[in-house]
Amino acid sequence: xxxxxxxxxxxxxxxxxxxxxxxxxxxxxxxxxxxxxxxxxxxxxxxxxxxxxxxxxxxxxxxxxxxxxxxxxxxxxxxxxxxxxxxxxxxxxxxxxxxxxxxxxxxxxxxxxxxxxxxxxxxxxxxxxxxxxxxxxxxxxxxxxxxxxxxxxxxxxxxxxxxxxxxxxxxxxxxxxxxxxxxxxxxxxxxxxxxxxxxxxxxxxxxxxxxxxxxxxxxxxxxxxxxxxxxxxxxxxxxxxxxxxxxxxxxxxxxxxxxxxxxxxxxxxxxxxxxxxxxxxxxxxxxxxxxxxxxxxxxxxxxxxxxxxxxxxxxxxxxxxxxxxxxxxxxxxxxxxxxxxxxxxxxxxxxxxxxxxxxxxxxxxxxxxxxxxxxxxxxxxxxxxxxxxxxxxxxxxxxxxxxxxxxxxxxxxxxxxxxxxxxxxxxxxxxxxxxxxxxxxxxxxxxxxxxxxx
Length: 454
Fold this sequence. Notes:
Elements: E1 27-36, H1 46-53, E2 68-73, E3 79-84, E4 88-93, E5 106-107, E6 112-115, E7 120-125, E8 138-143, E9 148-152, E10 164-166, E11 181-183, E12 190-195, E13 198-203, E14 214-217, E15 237-242, E16 253-257, E17 261-265, E18 273-278, H2 282-287, E19 296-301, E20 307-312, E21 318-322, E22 329-333, E23 346-349, E24 359-364, E25 369-376, E26 381-383, E27 387-390, E28 396-401, E29 407-412, E30 415-417, E31 437-439, E32 444-453
Parallel strand pairs: 1-5, 22-26
Antiparallel strand pairs: 1-32, 2-3, 3-4, 4-6, 7-8, 8-9, 9-10, 11-12, 12-13, 13-14, 15-16, 16-17, 17-18, 19-20, 20-21, 21-22, 23-24, 24-25, 25-27, 28-29, 29-32, 30-31
């Protein structure tokens, strides 16, 4: 977003002090149900593990331990779709009496688990998902070296086949393109896929066809000199989000890359980019502080469609842009520990129903805490969390709110790297996602009720 095109002023509501007057009283967070990612006993501590690795017989068949990496609510709010590090996608249907039940901390069980052929960075449930309509109970995934797959959330077979496939290949070589992000918005007739230097627009009903209806390159050409000269945004599109529809039924697609570029697209009117900007020096230029960041992993629109939230790896802050107002960086939501390559996804929720306040942002951190910023959009500058609570003992990969606003779900898990003096040994054998890492002991899915402020 060029500064010459953006207004120089900020909204009146943004003229307030950027800091809250201390943390507000937090509501009571009650654990309703949980599901550990695994039931086996924890592996030995690091030193014991290293000592016993040399004595272990080859091929003893220790399976890598699983952790939950992502979670999302279905459109009807009855089910949580959870991704795992073992290339699985599980569907948890919540008990109808979960809020009324006298029993505390119930154990959740998945109604179905689908094993994917390869790891995935993108899982999205159907925007018309309903337990009353079996045909609607589907989700999309994008795996490397495969077409995009459409699966039923509750398959009858242990190793189900996809109910639909969508070809995504490079025409010159016919090699598969690895999807990095997906959005599938209501009414659900089309979906959008982000990958390296391109966006692809698909018709859901045309599975098994020759490919996307529309391909939008994010750079002029892979071999064009302009690709490295500030035209477009070169890099993998790892984050996508669609704004709420305006009065004319239009919406804007926000796309973010691992190379720290943002782009806005209005695909209903044009296949050309509306705006591009780099966020590398956003904190220095606006607030005089380095906010960190090593690549965008998530973008999210505010419920009103005016503000855009940008979530990066290795960044202590979430960036908030005033897209439909001043068109500039409005605030940075600080206070989060996120020095990791893992994706720590956040969620947004509306303020009061009359629009008198801003919106809320809920985000997990590396230490297992969940932080909440309130009245986002109403303050300019660096904002500290309004309140937080300790939800897990490991990184919180996803924090998602139910549409009712009184229930939240979190999932945790991750890995840690080996100490420098043991890299290259047997540290990671059968243990983690990399040969020099081990999976953390705590990983779980938890469902919380959000009570009145105490």
